[in-house]
Design brief:
It is a single chain. The chain is of the alpha/beta class. It folds into two domains: 55 residues, DNA polymerase, domain 1, CATH 1.10.150; 265 residues, TIM Barrel (Alpha-Beta Barrel), CATH 3.20.20.70. The strands form two sheets. The chain has a ten-stranded mixed beta sheet, with helices on one face. Helix 10 links the parallel strand 11 and strand 12. The longest helix is centred in the middle third of the chain and has 18 residues. Bound molecules: iron/sulfur cluster. The site of iron/sulfur cluster has 15 residues, from loops. Iron/sulfur cluster (SF4) binds next to loops.
Amino acid sequence: MTALRLTGLSWEELNSLMEAWGERPYRAKQIWSWLYVKLARDVAEMTDLPAGLRSRLQELSPPLAPQVLAHQLSQDGTEKWLLGLADGARIETVYIPDQDRGTLCLSSQVGCSLSCTFCHTGTQPLERNLEAAEIVEQVTFVRAELTRRGQKLTNVVLMGMGEPLYNYDAVVKAVRILLNGTGLAIGTRKITLSTAGVVPRLVQVGRDLGINMAISLHSVRDVVRDQLIPLNRKYNVQALREAILAFPLKHGRCITWEYLLLKGVNDSLEDAQALVAFLGDIPSKVNLISFNPWPGCTFEPSSRERTLRFQEVICAAGFVTVIRESRGGDIGAACGQLRALGCC
Ligand code: SF4
């Protein structure tokens, strides 16, 4: 008997399923509400469904939440969960609370095939893509945890383990479930997809989802970017820029460029000026990220002074430039530091 992943069904698919089972149309609405408003972890909780329908769903549906294998809480409030999936695969999900928002960093694959040299996840080979349900359940699981404590999950970033655009269909399906206004209702402005630069998918994802786009850039010189992100050998800096120029950016939005500052690699004033020239008139925000070393990695973080000088150059050119303070470093949850997470 094939398992029925309720959290992997779109609203339309859930309606079709109820129709195919001869159920009344409002049953889909009830189930959707249990999944995404009441954040049920098991079909057994859906007490307003008729017993027959509930037991049919129970028979087919695995638990609605991943298994928690470990949970760590940082001094700065960042939390990391190691989650076990049905086939034994493991992923990590990180929650970063701020004054006015709570951001969840999601994984889209188990491991990653891109081997970015600064990223700890890049040392973990790709095991498999996550299913849409496994992406959605990271959100429902953490939101349920937070709701119980009176905390909020307001934003989602697809910056965890894996390259989201290499798991395109599942990611698009999952994000559409997160966006659905009668369920989780996380708006397009509150969801950000981060990519290492899968050029052929960029315009398409902009059209399909209309969410925020972040690009792991880290250098605008091919000779450097080739070393940091091997995918650059396939889609170089120029190809990436052209794809972004064609990106269907919504009014008032901008592209976020993630730039990890590495001592002596990409942090000179010339690098900063080259970045300004690259950005040109693309509506842009730049996130400067400090590098968090991990065992076996030869890169070093840029000094504070160099980081500030780099920021000055980008700001002077009129771009909002934020130095992203490291979060969760004491629990191995910071950017680039994680064994199971990493897309900066
Ligand atoms: S930075 Fe992102 S794309 Fe690159 S290896 Fe890490 S997880 Fe994969």
